[in-house]
Amino acid sequence: MRSTQCRVCRGRALQPFLDLGPTALANRFLRPEQAGEEPTFPLRLVLCRSCGLVQIDEEVAPETLFSDYIYVSGTSDLIFQHAAWLAEFFVRNYQLTAGDLVVEVASNDGTVLKALRPHGVRVVGVEPADNLARHARHAGLETVCAFFGEDTVKDLRERFGAARLVLARHVLAHVPDLHGFVRGLAAALAEDGVAAVEVPHLLLLREGLQYDTVYHEHLCYFSVRVLRNLFERCGLELIHVQDVAIHGGSILVTAQRQGGPRPVAASVAEQIAREETAGLHLPGPWLAFGRRVAYNRLALRAELDRLHSAGRTVAGYGAPAKGMTLLAYCDLGPERIAYLVDRSPHKQGLLTPGHHIPIYPPEKLLTEQPDVVLVLAWNFLTEIVRQQAEYLRRGGRFLVPTPVPHYGDTVAGHLQSLANPAPARRAA
Fold first, then answer.
1. d(CA 85, CA 169)
2. Does residue 419 sit in helix, strand or coil?
3. What does the pLDDT read at residue 311?
4. Which segments of the chain have a pLDDT < 70?
5. Do domains 77-281 and 296-427 have the same CATH topology?
6. Where are the domains positioned within the chain?
7. How far apart are alpha carbons 3 and 41 in whole angstroms?
8. If we measure between CA atoms, which residue out of 194, 202, 245, 250 comes closest to residue 55?
9. Homologous superfamily of domain range 77-281
10. What is the pLDDT of residue 414?
11. At what angle do helices 266-277 and 224-233 cross, to 10 degrees?
């Protein structure tokens, strides 16, 4: 369904700047016998010229996207480390004590709730995917299987009481009704409670050319400026912003009910000033972003074609949703990438949406030893380099697709190439 108004300010001054073409649903992986015709949906980015929200202008029904969800958070070492950090951060900064209620929205398999539980707080998850809710309950975590909103909050408060902390990590982008969702956050809070929302930072998406993080589940892409506006419309006051190094660079924003007891930290104004300086709300830089994305497609395809012409074998690491966008936009199928490997047992043995590339366990890299591995899960590159040290020792190479295609065979080399990326043609 085509959306013609801004999901935050309701304005209709929407500026298109990137068209990624008709794309299959990024988390609709297939069993081999299902390969065939798949539904595709337009995937376009637009900028609201009134408030600065970036969003896609196509909406797929949530029930189609999330009723049986294949992404499981507890398959990455980095996610476990981040969960432990989050627990310490909230307990220390917001004085959570034994018996306080913590509610996590879109709690997935309960990875973060497990990290919070040793601190003595009561934890409750709200997860719309029935398979993930059952998985969390099996681990002993109280989990309500529902989409979060104002109606859900009424039931939560009756059953569990008011929350000292409501945590919503990487879910806000998935929400069609932003106002109802944020009003639900406010309604769930105790008088001195806080709502914490973690999202990828729009500024880093643009700076890092992270166009592959655009897919149909992600309706919106947020700046601090837009989040403050949204919260104010829904009864919340933004009081703190924290940079977090996960998923390509994210922000953890904390809010309280308007008129709450905590002062507004300087980090809020500082982050908004940073965004204003970068012109994050202006159409010109976003139109330039679209041109950079088109160049990235040409450069990546050219490097893969060069490898193919030279007789090199190419596989891929990771089957994240972002990787499915990149494969679709760059039109990369089994003729260029023979197979993918992924740590998630839920994806192994399946085919990617769209191009139907087979997915195997990571051990296949050592049995096959492809010459080059395209890192689709580039946000976990540090972890992948550590885990695949033997593959690299044997002469394998990691090709990182963004911000320009470059070889990142070591963590240090990857960080240097991000600062001053050299085209892959010179590095190979």
1. 13
2. helix
3. 97
4. 64, 66-76, 409-428
5. yes
6. 77-281, 296-427
7. 13
8. 202
9. Vaccinia Virus protein VP39 (3.40.50.150)
10. 42
11. 120
CB 367 within 8 A of CB 342: no
CA distance 242 to 41: 34
Q: Is 383 exposed, middle or buried (0-12, 13-18, 19+ CB in 10 A)?
A: middle
Please give the Cα distance from 418 to 22 (Å, whole number).
30
Tokens 């997860």 label which residue? 127
- 3-state SS assignment for residue 250: strand
Which residues make Cβ contacts (< 8 Å) with residue 288, sequence separation at least 6? none
Report DSSP state, residue 221: E
CATH for 296-427 is: 3.40.50.720
- In this structure, are residues 257 and 305 in contact, taking their beta carbons and an 8 Å threshold? no
Q: How far are the Cα atoms of 185, 238, 239 from residue 267, in angstroms, in the given order?
A: 22, 10, 8
Q: Per the structure block, which two tokens stand in for 171? A: 């879910």
The Cα 406–Cα 251 span in angstroms is 26
What's the rounded Cα separation, in Å, for the pair 157 and 141?
A: 17
The residue whose two tokens read 């012109």 is 279
| Three-state DSSP state, 371 | coil
- CA gap 23, 167 in Å, rounded: 31
Tokens 């769930």 sit at which residue? 188
245-274 per-position pLDDT tens digit? 877 789 999 999 999 999 999 999 999 999
Residues in the chain: 428
Please tell me whether the overall predicted TM-score, pTM, comes out greater than 0.70 for this model: yes
Give 266's contacts (C-beta < 8 A, 6+ positions apart): none
DSSP percent split of the chain into helix, strand, coil, nearest 5: 40, 20, 40
Tell me, what amino acid is at 202? L
